[in-house]
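ESCALATION

Customer reports they have been waiting on this structure for their group meeting. Please prioritize. Original submission:
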Amino acid sequence: MSNLKHWIWLTQRKGLAGQNAVRVLEHFGAPEQVHAADEGAYTQVGGLSQETIRSLMDKSLDQADRVLGDCDRLGIHLLTRQDATYPERLKAIHQPPMVLYWKGRQVAFDEEVAIAIVGTRAATPYGVQMASKLSAELTRNGALIVSGMAQGIDAAAVRGALKMGGPVVSVLGGGIDVVYPKYHKDLFEDVAAVGTLISEYPPGAETKASNFPIRNRIISGLSVGVIAVESGRYGGTLLTVNHASEQSREVFAVPGPVGAPESEGTNRLIQEGAAKLIMSSDDVLCEFVSRFPGKLKLGWDAFASPEVEAQRLEGAAVVPEHRELTRSKEKPAQAKKDDIPVLRWADCKNKLTDDQRALLLALNEGMAVADDLVERTQIPARRVMSAMTLLQIQGYVAEESGKRFRAAVKLKME
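Update from on-call: job pushed to the front of the queue and completed.
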């Protein structure tokens, strides 16, 4: 297996991006061979500028060492094109990223009904509502939401998924440790706690406007379908849709008012037959039910009253149909010790996030209110409440009177 240093070194060569990177890798076979080659070998590749060749002749790995050190310090993981867990659907696109940096929960994208939701930053209240609503419905019914982290439609889609207690993936246009926009710091933390942050840029990399069109191919590449909620006649949303079409992804669009600038792009996609008109999550999910048997549910719209839907979209905790969580003011009957399910601690690594594991371990010491858990784990209050909501939905934690939490499973330490 290639050394991570050489993969990072390769991504840092000037002018070596897109097809040039693909061509160089195909010619030499692996990053180590690229690093070991001389100037004469580089000229045989063809199509490389003198600037790129000079950059390839710089064999220093110091910068790569610094990146690896930053990743270790910040809890950021790396995934290269040679890794078995690198998504096949992403590997198959034009110009797949050589290296992905990620933080949070590792996702098996090839097994997920990953749906990208994209749209304008200058979203209308209608667009924000539709992005949040669709994201919440899709998450509730088994899909995985993929989006960016920009204001407007991206942020609404991410929040909609988080409100349903489901994981969400945000693909960034800069380093994972660089919060952009800065006022989305809480959103970054929430996604890292329950979902995944992904970037092809190393820690510390500045978020540039020129990065976003390049980033968009990853959003569509990780997904099986792309939903455009609001878009002007030109812009990044339509670039993502173009990537999706080239990658043979399903494309959907939300119709908007005729004449509204924010909906001109999406309305034209529908008019020209480039996107399927959708009005609910079922219009999307029905395209994938047969491809992912047992993964999805349909009919959430039909059973949700306007009042229930409003509560869900306002952030109320949602309980899966197969599990009931009680929050009665009356003290529930204590379960017998032998009746409490046993959870192997070794299994928690794949089932739970770092925050969830720390909180479950803290509750193993006895019941506690949220403030106690913050003190015991040193996890910020916002992340504690987010993780506790998920633990309740999963049935690992129960809430009793006085807003006290207790473990609903018995940990088996091995």
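Sent to customer with the following note: DSSP finds 20 helices and 13 strands in the chain.
Escalation resolved.
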